[in-house]
Prior knowledge:
Blueprint: H1 11-19, H2 21-33, H3 38-47, E1 54-58, H4 64-72, E2 76-81, H5 84-96, E3 101-105, E4 124-127, H6 138-151, E5 157-162, H7 169-183, E6 196-201, E7 205-210, H8 214-224, E8 226-233, H9 234-237, H10 242-247, E9 252-258
Parallel strand pairs: 1-2, 1-4, 2-3, 4-5
Antiparallel strand pairs: 5-9, 6-7, 8-9
Helix pairs in contact: 2-4, 2-5, 6-8
This protein binds S-adenosylmethionine.
Amino acid sequence: xxxxxxxxxxxxxxxxxxxxxxxxxxxxxxxxxxxxxxxxxxxxxxxxxxxxxxxxxxxxxxxxxxxxxxxxxxxxxxxxxxxxxxxxxxxxxxxxxxxxxxxxxxxxxxxxxxxxxxxxxxxxxxxxxxxxxxxxxxxxxxxxxxxxxxxxxxxxxxxxxxxxxxxxxxxxxxxxxxxxxxxxxxxxxxxxxxxxxxxxxxxxxxxxxxxxxxxxxxxxxxxxxxxxxxxxxxxxxxxxxxxxxxxxxxxxxxxxxxxx
Length: 260
Ligand SMILES: C[S@@+](CC[C@H](N)C(=O)[O-])C[C@H]1O[C@@H](n2cnc3c(N)ncnc32)[C@H](O)[C@@H]1O
């Protein structure tokens, strides 16, 4: 008998994984205990110096970044996530810490449909800790980048992170093996594109992640209305604490400005 077709990872798979109790506990602990990474703090101070600016955080999770920004003195914060359970945790934390943030439910690929931000033009946007890369399919990631363009003023900075599958010889060797699998059609059938991973981690649950190369992100920014301003691996920006390194692996930071 032919085997049943495998369903591919989609936005609902990713949303369900982030609503899973294991993920909720993991990101909520980080929001309560970790706050901003040293590298995030350095880049936010450099590219978002105006604490009165209207800022939008996409994929805010349990509020780790937005609550820390409010505590650092940022006064006009909006933040959204499509995982209801994480958003509820962000709302509780904001209440507990008296952090003034407009938190709302939205999907980054459908942001302009959201009435909460209909009349707001943002001076900057953030999509931290690889959230953009957790959107399956490159066309959808580009759609999210275009949606952020649509709600930001010309010149507005966008800060986000990705992995970089070219970062080390070991990773390049692993991806060469994966490329051979794709060439033979023997890749995990749940994946959508070369560079995707879908894996289980103790204490986090299932995670979908697209790992790009640098040229891919440069092309995506160019195609969606963003001008590249900066990128560097995290280790080149700051030495992170053990707690931050336990929570998150190495990543590439990106800053782009909305074209006018
Ligand atoms: C790795 S978590 C990071 C959470 C938080 N920013 C942090 O740094 O702790 C990525 C977040 O992006 C959110 N996310 C992924 N795809 C999204 C989408 N299409 N729309 C809105 N949020 C999304 C997830 O629900 C999750 O909260």
